[in-house]
Design goal:
Distance between the termini of chain B: 49 Å
Largest interface: B-C, 63 and 57 residues
Strand order of the largest sheet of chain C: 3-2-1-7-18
Chains: A mainly beta, B alpha/beta, C alpha/beta
Oligomer: heterotrimer
Mean pLDDT of chain B: 90
Strand content of chain C: 15-25%
Largest sheet of chain B: 8 strands, mixed
Low-confidence stretches of chain B: 256-262, 393-409
Shape of chain B: globular
Largest sheet of chain C: 5 strands, parallel
Radius of gyration of chain B: 21 Å
CATH class of the largest domain in chain C: Alpha Beta
CATH class of the largest domain in chain B: Alpha Beta
CATH superfamily of the largest domain in chain B: FAD/NAD(P)-binding domain
Number of domains of chain C: 3
CATH topology of the largest domain in chain C: FAD/NAD(P)-binding domain
Low-confidence stretches of chain C: 346-363, 459-471, 499-510, 513-525
Radius of gyration of chain C: 23 Å
Structural class of chain C: alpha/beta
CATH superfamily of the largest domain in chain C: FAD/NAD(P)-binding domain
Chain lengths: 100, 409, 525
């Protein structure tokens, strides 16, 4: 029921992977939209508390949903349209080890 | 109540001066037209460097500073409570600096510079590329020469300045922000306080520590002081898994700090912060107090940083800020009494080195003020040296030049 | 003499309207939007609009009409996926630095624009006040729920609680219902008394806002038919769950929004959408040097002109007035940006013409402008009522705990923030940020900036003379969005002043330079 409605005559299907796991969707969906439609609610891991994060603002303001897409870091999943074959990776950038 | 000293400027130099004076029993008031640590102090990188200084008085001061910082950090931690004790950590990190030449032509001058520094007692170790890559695994293996400086360190400048101010307060100093100095209170030739937007502040003496605005404040006090702004921009990346372990910069930095050339100069200074972001500095422009963004400056900084660390090409710059560094025509700080104007003292002109040199400059000023034996020879920093007092004409010329450059840029 | 060039940033209601008005008035217009579609957040829609698309939108006909006009107008170039990342102030205008390509991709195409006039229509985003647990996955802004519903027909959860303040909560709940989610309840923090004060009082303008009220009443009715309670004077004060939200605490709040002890109750939910009205996207306006009002909107005159010559502003940037006001303001801004400082004054409309449709194509520009001016006058009243009824009240901080995150990016909690401010004795926003790290993460304080400023009691010091550092406002972001260093490093040279622009990729557009002849989709090495 959270999948895209079959309103369009021919929405082109596409597949992306998140950390190797395939996700199916259609042309025009954002990466975040695809993940949410598949009931995936979180993907990034925060640096301090190692806590899960997913979509918060949904419009590119909060940067909570950052993912790595085809090797490029810091892509806002809520803005980026998925392209067939996109290799998406979750980001977890821990704080540097004990410096200072 | 008349205080003994009013310090104009609550940046790191003013904070250090106030702390040193207050700890010697003097009643001190610090004034700043804005918030504490909000000007030059908040808009640099927190460099505590000996590596960029050639033999001479500034290096002597820097070596003294490098020796003094660890004990100062310990004093502040004792006094204010260290991390977890309520006061934000000042992130002092004696991480060392690595200077690399990125061109064939740059290798020779860097090695020669390091050799002269060694002659002046700097721990400057020429290392081959393999060792450099061991120190900095992400470094471009195409570098042509590298020198390792274990004495270089880093600090979070705003936290450091706030800590010095907090310490000064504990020693009895008063800090008043949002108070702009508009003129001098005079008794004959003698300055006996300042007039401000919040009323008169009578004082036994006035310490001018207004960074790049020192020339402007001096003028309001009726004194000529040829302190000019040099603009620097800094880029900050998002947090990344890559870590730059030390302060790493290209050898051109050496040339840039010691040049009076007005044209835009950039050299790359790259380092990770405790938060995992990467700081990239720093451009040097003489455009007066023009604070307008120039995107091409960011381009030059980015290109140089990538030349040092290729991984940075994919890094996202999320913030940029610019600051104005105070400089004097001979590129030396001014610390001491102004013999032309009884009651006026000066501590400014540290250019891009004020965070590192600020604390010892404040202590040097307090030594001179109280007649104690100074820790370093104060003569090169005196107010009545030719580059400072002989610069009446130069100051005006400088202003004109600045405007011309701003138009041309 | 060549036509005046106007760049409009933002293709929501205000920007679309501005682009059309500017083109009608004779200017060569470039309309930029960071998204790959026009419409803005208000008309964010499916990549392939569905037959039932209009069910998800208010004023869809207005949108399609506007969209079609700007898409086909010979003097309008619409450039989507065009992210302005910096604005440079020049001695005689502004220069925009733009990257064109997929969101956040490496190696996008550079575009540099130096128009005669700039219309900022960058809109607003939700403001969400922090509460314990708001960092849990499943807690989103109301805007996120709305965007995902409108554009992708995706619900943020199955059992959803909607909360916060402002009439926007109602259409969000309606959209959630359409996507198949179960909306458990809608909680409006404003108390009945302040709602009555804001919306019920009758001074001039009530007639103009009456249909707004009717619209909102319609939403409430629709929700009621779905069994969704609209409860006023209540707030979500905590969320809990293991790795994602599983339940929320709802409490009654008093007139100052402090939770009333003993009224807490727990609601099981897998999503909670919370927004407390909107905050304008001020980056470009601040970069241009526009004066910003104490309540953080761009100051404009009757012609929507900012305090910076050559820069106009319209829409939510100048006050939260809704789409109809944005259309009107855009019209006025676009018209005057096109005619320049010497253009006619905005007419004080008095012809009593039809007022039903901001996109009316049937009459001349003058009548449309006059109508827009009248509509805009009403929007001022709407914004005032909105603030009176739903404006954030200071008592909300009572639901914060020391361990409640304030800055989501850097995970700085309220206790740390207060301790940093207290230890340094500083109420300077810059100092508190640098010593606590609040606001220094990737969102650059877009989410927490105002909250941090309010929590530490920060003030904007007056800027001093001659190059004093500008006051540390939470809205100053010279980099409007993150930019990859590899892209920065390939920025083209500044175009020489007044020089013709070689390789102009925008026929009839403003001075533009574009670089990177190779495929912009190929990441730079």
């Amino acid at each position: 029921m959270t999948a895209p409605s079959p309103h369009d005559a021919g929405p082109r299907p596409l597949t992306i992977t998140l950390d190797g796991e395939p996700f199916a969707g259609t042309q025009g969906q954002t990466i975040a939209g695809m993940l949410l439609a598949a009931r995936r609610r979180a993907w990034r891991t925060t640096s301090v508390a190692a806590a899960p994060r997913g979509v918060f603002c949904g419009i590119g303001v909060c940067f909570d949903c950052l993912v790595t897409v085809n090797g490029a870091r810091d892509v806002r999943a809520c803005l980026r349209r998925a392209a067939d074959g996109d290799v998406v990776e979750t980001q977890h950038d821990p704080l540097p080890g004990a410096s200072a | 109540m008349t205080v003994d000293v009013v310090v104009v400027g609550a940046g790191i130099v003013g904070a250090a001066s106030a702390r040193a004076l207050a700890r010697r029993g003097l009643r001190v008031t610090v004034l700043d037209r804005r918030a504490a640590a909000s000007g030059t102090t908040a808009h640099g990188e927190g460099n505590l460097l000996v590596s960029d200084k050639g033999p001479g008085p500034e290096l002597v001061l820097a070596q003294h500073a490098a020796a003094r910082w660890p004990s100062l950090v310990a004093e502040l931690a004792d006094e204010l409570g260290g991390p977890g004790g309520g006061f934000p950590p000042i992130e002092y990190d004696p991480k060392g600096g690595l200077v690399a030449a990125t061109t064939v032509e740059g290798a020779g001058p860097l090695r020669e510079f390091a050799a002269r520094q060694r002659g002046a007692g700097v721990d400057a170790r020429e290392v081959d590329v393999a060792v450099a890559l061991d120190l900095e695994p992400e470094l471009n293996p195409g570098i042509t020469a590298a020198v390792w400086y274990p004495e270089d360190a880093q600090v979070q400048p705003v936290a450091a300045a706030e800590a010095l101010l907090a310490s000064a307060r504990r020693a009895g100093a008063t800090v008043r922000t949002g108070v702009d100095v508009v003129g001098a209170l005079r008794d004959g030739d003698r300055i006996v306080g300042v007039r401000t937007t919040a009323g008169d502040v009578p004082a036994g003496a006035v310490v001018l520590a207004a960074g790049p605005w020192s020339g402007v404040v001096a003028e309001r006090l009726g004194v000529v002081l040829p302190v000019r702004p040099r603009r620097g921009m800094v880029l900050v990346t998002t947090r990344m898994p890559h870590v730059v372990r030390h302060k790493v910069y290209d050898g051109d930095y050496v040339g840039a700090t010691q040049s009076g050339d007005a044209a835009l100069r950039t050299s790359s200074v790259v380092e990770s912060t405790a938060a995992g972001t990467v700081l990239i500095g720093s451009s040097r422009e003489q455009v007066g107090f023009d604070d307008r963004l120039r995107a091409v400056v960011l381009r030059e900084m980015a290109a140089r940083a990538i030349r040092l660390f290729p991984f940075l090409a994919a890094a996202s710059a999320m913030r940029t800020y610019l600051g104005f560094r105070p400089y004097v025509p001979d590129h030396l700080p001014i610390v001491g009494p102004d013999p032309r104007t009884p009651g006026l003292w000066v501590a400014t002109g540290h250019e891009g080195a004020g965070i590192g040199l600020g604390p010892v400059s404040g202590e040097l000023l307090a030594d001179l003020f109280t007649g104690a034996a100074p820790a370093v020879d104060p003569a090169p920093f005196r107010v009545d040296r030719p580059a400072v007092v002989g610069a009446d004409h130069g100051a005006h010329h400088g202003a004109d030049q600045t405007e011309t450059i701003a138009e041309a840029s | 003499m060549s036509a005046r060039t106007v760049v409009v940033v933002g293709a929501g209601p205000a920007g679309l309207s501005a682009a059309r008005a500017a083109a009608r008035a004779g200017a060569e217009v470039t309309l930029l939007d960071a998204s790959d579609q026009v419409g803005g957040q208000f008309w964010r829609h499916s990549a392939r609009p569905a037959p039932d698309e209009r069910r998800y939108h208010h004023g869809w006909g207005t949108f399609t009409a506007l969209r079609d006009v700007v898409a086909t107008h010979p003097r309008v170039t619409v450039l989507t996926s065009a992210q302005v990342w910096a604005l440079e102030r020049l001695d005689d205008g502004v220069r925009l630095r733009v990257l064109v390509g997929p969101a956040d991709a490496a190696g996008r195409e550079h575009l540099t624009l130096t128009p005669d006039a700039l219309v900022l229509a960058t809109g607003a985003h939700d403001r969400t006040l922090p509460f314990p647990g708001w960092q849990l996955p499943g807690v989103t802004t109301a805007g996120a729920a709305q965007a995902l519903a409108k554009a992708e027909r995706v619900a943020v959860g199955d059992r959803v609680v909607v909360a916060g303040a402002g009439p926007f909560l109602l259409p969000v709940a309606t959209s959630l219902l359409r996507t198949g989610a179960r909306v458990l309840s809608v909680h409006e923090a404003a108390t009945p008394a302040s709602l009555a004060r804001g919306w019920g009082s009758r001074p001039a303008g009530l007639v103009g806002t009456a249909h707004k009220l009717g619209e909102l009443a319609g939403y409430v009715g629709a929700l009621a038919r779905h069994g969704v309670a609209y409860r006023v004077g209540e707030a979500v004060v905590a969320a809990r769950g293991d790795g994602r939200v599983e339940e929320v605490t709802v409490a009654r709040v008093d007139a100052r929004w402090s939770p009333v002890p003993g009224t807490e109750r727990t609601v099981a939910a897998d999503a909670v959408c919370v927004s407390h009205c909107f905050t304008p996207r001020l980056e470009l306006a601040v970069a241009a040097g526009c004066a910003i009002s104490p309540d953080r909107f761009v100051v404009v005159d009757a012609a929507q002109r900012s305090t910076v010559p050559g820069v106009w502003a319209a829409g939510e940037l100048t006050g939260i007035g809704g789409a109809e006001a944005a259309l009107a303001e855009g019209w006025v801004a676009g018209h005057h940006a096109a005619t320049g400082p010497g253009g006619p004054d905005p007419a004080d409309g008095s012809d009593g013409a039809d007022e039903s449709d901001g996109a009316d194509e049937s009459d001349g520009a003058d009548a449309g402008l006059a109508r827009a001016v009248r509509r805009r006058a009403r929007s001022v009243d709407f914004a005032r009522r909105l603030e009176a009824a739903h404006g954030i009240r200071g008592g909300w901080t009572a639901w914060l705990r020391d361990d409640t995150l304030v800055c989501r990016c850097e995970e700085v909690d309220a206790g740390t923030l207060r301790a940093a401010a207290c230890a340094t004795g500083s109420t300077d926003l810059r100092s508190v940020r640098l010593t606590s790290r609040a606001g220094l993460g990737p969102c650059q304080a877009r989410v927490c900036g105002r909250t941090v400023a309010e929590l530490v009691g920060a003030r904007d010091d007056a800027p001093g003379a001659c190059g004093a550092s500008p006051p540390a406002t939470p809205d100053r972001r010279p980099l409007v969005v993150p930019v990859r260093l590899g892209d920065l490093a390939t920025l083209p040279d500044d175009p020489p002043p007044g020089a013709p622009q070689p390789g102009d990729p925008l026929p009839g557009g403003p001075d533009a330079t574009s670089t990177r002849p190779e495929d912009p989709r190929v990441p730079s090495p």
